[in-house]
Structure formats: C-alpha cells, structure tokens
C-alpha cells in the first residue's frame, strides 16, 4: 500500500472546514504524532557490563533470605510462570 502525497494546503483546507471547537483535538493529535516519531527515531542506549554493574540491579535481592540458591530459585520461577500460562490457555 503506497501512501498518497498530502500537501500542506490540503491539511490547512481540512482544518478550515473543521469547526474551531475541535482544533484542540487536532493539536493533541499532532503532539501525539510528534512524540511517537521521536520515540521510533531514537534508540535506547545499549548497556555495557560496566553499566549493569554500576546500576541498582546488581545486588537488588541481596537481603532476601527466601531465595537461597539463585539458579534453583530462577528455575522455580520459570516453572511457575510456564504452568500459570498453560493453565490460563487451557481455560480459554
């Protein structure tokens, strides 16, 4: 599907045909379009290992006494998540 060319004059003509009370909605929509185009053009910075180590994520659960072995804990969480989604799918 090919986008048709739209001119500034066409947009202004459509705006003139719209009742002025609706113009704030047009401005809101233009703001939305600007914000989404900025989001798609800028990529988030990729984290390095050093960035991760300096973040608050490392050691986040250091004070938890219910985790024990972190590998076993992670496996248990994955197992619970897999069974939770399977149970939801079965009810649909």
Please give a quick description of this structure.
The chain has 92 residues and is mainly α.
Topology:
Blueprint: H1 8-17, H2 23-41, H3 49-54, H4 70-91
How would you describe this protein?
The chain is mainly α. It has four helices and no strands. The longest helix has 22 residues, at 70-91. The protein is elongated, with a radius of gyration of 26 Å. The two termini are 35 Å apart.
List keywords for this structure.
elongated; 0% strand; single chain; mainly alpha; 92 residues
End-to-end distance: 35 Å
Number of helices: 4
Q: What is the number of beta strands?
A: 0
| Low-confidence regions | none
Overall outline: elongated
Radius of gyration over C-alpha positions, nearest whole angstrom: 26 Å
What's the helical proportion of residues?
Answer: 55-70%
Order of helices and strands: HHHH
